[in-house]
Amino acid sequence: MAVEHSKILHPLDRHLRTERLPTMYCPGCGIGIALGAIFRALDRRIREGLVDPNKVVWVGGIGCSARASLYVNYDAAHVLHGRAIAFATGVVLANPELQVIVIGGDGDIAGIGGNHLIHAAKRNIDMIVVMITNFVYAMTGGQVAPTTPLGVKTTTTPSGNPEPPLNVIKLIASLNANYIARASVVTPHYIENFFYKALGMKGFRFIEIISTCPEIYGRHIGLRDPVEMYNELKKRVKYKPKPSLEESDINWDKGIIIGEFIERNTPSYLELLRKVYVR
Amino acid sequence: MRKTFTSGNIAIAEGAITAGLKFYAGYPITPSSEIMEYLAEKLPKLGGVVIQMEDEIASINAAIGASWTGAKSMTATSGPGFSLMAEAVGLAVITETPLVIVDVMRAGPSTGVPTKASQSDVLQARWLAHGDYVIPCYAPWSVQEAYDLTIKAFNTAELLRTPVVVLSDAIIAHLWEPLTIYDHGEVNIIDRKIPRTGERAPPYKPDPDLVPPMPIFGKGFKALVESLVHDERGYYAPRDESYRALVTRLHMKILKRLDYIFEYETYYCDEECEYMLVSYGSTARVAYIAMLELRRRGYRVCMSRLKTLWPLDREKLVKSCRARKIIVLENNMGKIYMDMERIFKEQEVYSAPLLSLELPPVREVLEVISVWL
Known about the structure:
The complex is a heterodimer.
Chain A: H1 31-48, E1 56-60, E2 75-78, H2 84-94, E3 99-105, H3 106-112, H4 114-123, E4 127-133, E5 136-137, E6 143-144, H5 168-173, E7 179-184, H6 188-199, E8 204-210, H7 214-221, H8 226-236, E9 237-239, E10 256-263, H9 269-278
Parallel strand pairs in A: 1-2, 1-3, 3-4, 4-8, 7-8, 9-10
Antiparallel strand pairs in A: 5-6, 7-10
Chain B: E1 2-7, H1 8-19, E2 21-26, H2 33-42, E3 49-52, H3 56-67, E4 72-77, H4 79-84, H5 86-94, E5 99-105, H6 122-127, E6 137-138, H7 143-160, E7 163-169, H8 170-173, E8 176-181, E9 224-226, H9 240-255, H10 258-261, E10 264-267, E11 275-280, H11 281-296, E12 301-306, E13 308-310, H12 314-320, E14 325-330, H13 336-343, E15 348-353, H14 362-370
Parallel strand pairs in B: 2-3, 2-4, 4-5, 5-7, 6-7, 11-12, 11-14, 14-15
Antiparallel strand pairs in B: 1-8, 6-13, 10-12
């Protein structure tokens, strides 16, 4: 079934399989804002001629964020929980012309998929990984996630989370990623700018997007109202130019620093592979 | 065509190259590692890519991703790694991704005996992942056949858009024998169907052969690889009619081509025989010698050797057997035996589990069989 482009109502509709709308996302979910900002960045790069939409592949594992892969009007794969980066590695190695975008939540990317995340960053392999952090396993109903703050009550930590959260930015920064940035759905212009920049780079590029999940995480922390949760997050998110890695720790009381934590131009996996293969 | 002298593992790597392998991802594991080592040396010179991933889960998922770019892909492992690949075998099945998985069997359970053989993964090859599915599985008994059946595995994968298992073992892996390697054009190579034209070509809309053309990445198809139960467009379809249509077709596209997939060899089965030995893979080598020895001693015995373990062609097997008693020799507790007992309703079927880390001496096999003679 072909998309009828004459019926496009919104300038970003061409990026979506519009016949699949509405999405399954809850009211107040931040994923739509994140996706919109990513589309605007893609749109700019496509108009500049730097990105060919026919050479873009989206890969998602399992979870609310990963599910974005099945709404986008591109070559796309909605694969196994945690394995999106592994799948994407095969895609980009077998056809280096492709611009591969992995999208997923913090559970999918850094929990079950943590080993693949580490090795993709270690290899500095050519892909953009977008991790949408909502601090909880939302699709399965509100269980503790790798990023859940200490003490938060979830359905599987009813007395409060006894584990300190994983700071994924620090983890990736210890490896060979070329780009590490954090934005939030309360600052969509930064998502757009960081993603736009990432599209012009090579190697492993990681963008964390701090999102709102009023329906599930909001229930856990007493911010069930979408507008209230959005406003509370907005109060805490602060942009900083060139923030230090120490500032990447997420602290709900002290604030959440967003910005570009790492920017390098080291040879990517594909570039290094070409060198050794030619020899 | 060129002749060489090599091992079963290298023969599998050579077979993959002849078939057009372009992407290999794997993780070291005895007794399969030489396949990756050999390909790491050879494949880049032929325009392919080899990567050692962080584990077997990553390896098979990367191979599935690579296959969606149009590259013929393979991974090889042994029992413990094969167990880790379970979930992704299901992914390759439901997304109809051509892929060859080599399992070089070693003794288990668990870490077992890494350097020694068994045939205890034959049901794992059939039912590794959750969900309803059937995938082809080939079991070579020689170095030449490791080469030939690897080519066949690629052809089957491409023809039917399915993962295919090559089931070798530690004995075949490290056995050295003469091997004939074919040049381009000397052997039939099958490539997957790709949609002729068009954006949004439905990735799961079958042709009359029940196999959908595969809209590979990067060609403007806007393909959707979907692990959920889906309709022909790849859209999630949690409804009885879609679920039934998909699961039935995934089965039928394989079973419809049983004529192509199922291979076996018989020895003296056209004679009037009292006994028929059934065996496969490395164990069939000893079974064959045992049969010859029994014939020398005057027993009327023939043998059927399975090259395809799954799916089995019941009709062909029944037709080919004129013996009254069937003895199933295999290096496990009696796994293919269960199917032989089901298939051969008119005969007495006995299980001869060898449980032998090395190829057992013929006299040992004769001792086991003699109970029923």
